[in-house]
Amino acid sequence: MEHQGVLFFFCGKMGAGKSTKSKIIAAENHAVLVSEDEWLAAHYPSQINTFDDYIKFSNLIKPFVKMHVQSLLNLGVNVVMDFPANTLKQRAWFVSLCREVNCRHELWFLDVTDEQCLSQIAQRRIEFPERAQFDTESVFHHVTQYFEAPTADEGLTIK
Q1: How far apart are the first and last CA of the chain?
Q2: Cross-referenced InterPro entries, in alphabetical order (predicted)?
Q3: Going by C-beta distance under 8 Å and a sequence separation of 6 or more, which residues neighbour residue 20?
Q4: What is the pLDDT of residues 118-142, one digit of tens each?
């Protein structure tokens, strides 16, 4: 393909602002925004009640999301994925997605303090009461234990 789309994805702790930033990047780059939260809510309504449920269903949608995103990239469409790239394994999935269609990517690393994240999570509970079950300090600490900041040796274009 002469012109591939560019894939944009995000790394940052829970509450760092990944979803907010994804909307901005999508608008600035005339990109299609693909949101994990939206895909999960549409395909598995009321079925995600625990962190383990999230992992299970997130893994189930990934093959379909990957094919969809790669089709868009092959058409020259820029794609912003509001999916976490917070572990080495998650980022390797994005890299393989790009490598298979030979497209460029940008990983936006939102390096935000725990205090800022917790403050933003508290605000999100007010703005989106339906998320209050998951947007808690205890969930933040549980999820943060798995967080791995990106490193230069991963071969990523980090912004």
Answers
A1: 25
A2: P-loop_NTPase
A3: none
A4: 999 999 888 887 777 778 888 899 8
Q: CA nearest 80: which of 149, 135, 154, 6? A: 6
Q: List the domains of the chain with CATH numbers.
A: 7-154 (3.40.50.300)
The answer to whether the CB of 13 falls within 8 A of the CB of 112 is yes
Two tokens, residue 158: 């980090």
In this prediction, residues 8-36 reach a mean pLDDT of 96
Rounded to whole angstroms, how far apart are CA atoms 40 and 65?
Answer: 11
Encoding tokens for residue 151?
């490193």
Return the closest-CA partner of residue 51 out of 154, 112, 138, 129.
138
Q: According to the model, what pLDDT value does residue 1 have? A: 46
Instruction: Give all strands of the β-sheet with 105-109 in edge-to-edge order.
Output: 32-35, 79-84, 7-11, 105-109
> pTM for the complete prediction?
0.91
Lookup result for tokens 């976490």 = 84
